[in-house]
Amino acid sequence: MTIQLYLVRHSETQMNRNSQLQGITDMPLTPKGRQQAAKTAELLADVPFTAAYSSDRLRAVDTAKIILAKHPNITLHRRAGLREYYFGGLEGITNNQLISASLARYGVATMTHAWTRGQRFAQLIRNFEKMDPTKQAETLPELRLRVQTSFAQIVAAQPADAKVLVVAHGVFLSAMVDLLAPEKLPVGLLKNASVTRLDVADGAWQVRGVNLTTAADLAQIDQQVATK
């Protein structure tokens, strides 16, 4: 009895195009973003979803709706708990601005050490916390608790062998991958409109694939599971 979770990062927004930290800021999809979502919809068209959830942010809702156009009988449940990481006073700044400010504060050696050794994702979140001048940014324990709670609630509501769509955000979904299998989390985290597959069986969680974007990617995951 296995519950399959198909995690999708929302498609492109203008803030993504500008390489800005988006967080809880509400933004619609760009035309390219809608095309990306349509491509993901085709990719997941043959998955017999039994339930669907999304963040309540517009970019996630719209991505989910485009995907669910291929699954007209599935109701979308919007959850505030699936929102993106809150960057506090850093929301809206660009990645380059954050990197420059971090290098100026800590130096190249310290930043390089933090990014190449140990817990990369945890260091990333801690840096957001430290660099936020308003001290409002979500802490790592807060993020992890929200992620774990949100996914536990979703799984608890499913029947056996459910296939569930979850559309949310890059840092939020990356936090779940990092909790389960940090070695599988890419340096650049999750791509817009990509699929990440988690399986839950008898209380055990497994990351089956990350940043899946083609039918061959999904077929390979199913083949691997079938042969085990």
What topology does this entry show?
Layout: E1 2-9, H1 14-17, H2 31-43, E2 51-55, H3 58-68, E3 76-79, H4 95-106, H5 108-116, H6 120-131, H7 140-156, E4 163-168, H8 170-180, E5 195-201, E6 204-212, H9 215-226
Parallel strand pairs: 1-4, 2-3, 2-4
Antiparallel strand pairs: 1-5, 5-6
Question: DSSP strand (E) fraction?
Answer: 15-25%
Mean pLDDT equals: 94
Order of helices and strands: EHHEHEHHHHEHEEH
N→C terminal distance: 14 Å
User: Regions with pLDDT < 50 over 5+ consecutive residues?
Assistant: none
Widest sheet, order of strands? 3-2-4-1-5-6
Structural class, judged by helices and strands? alpha/beta
Question: What does this protein structure show overall?
Answer:
With 228 residues, this protein is of the alpha/beta class. The protein is 44% helix and 17% strand. Strands 3-2-4-1-5-6 form a 6-stranded mixed beta sheet, with helices on both faces. α3 (58-68) links the parallel β2 and β3 (76-79). α7 (140-156) crosses α8. The radius of gyration is 17 Å and the shape is globular. The two termini are 14 Å apart.
In short:
This protein has 228 residues and is α/β, with parallel strands linked by helices.
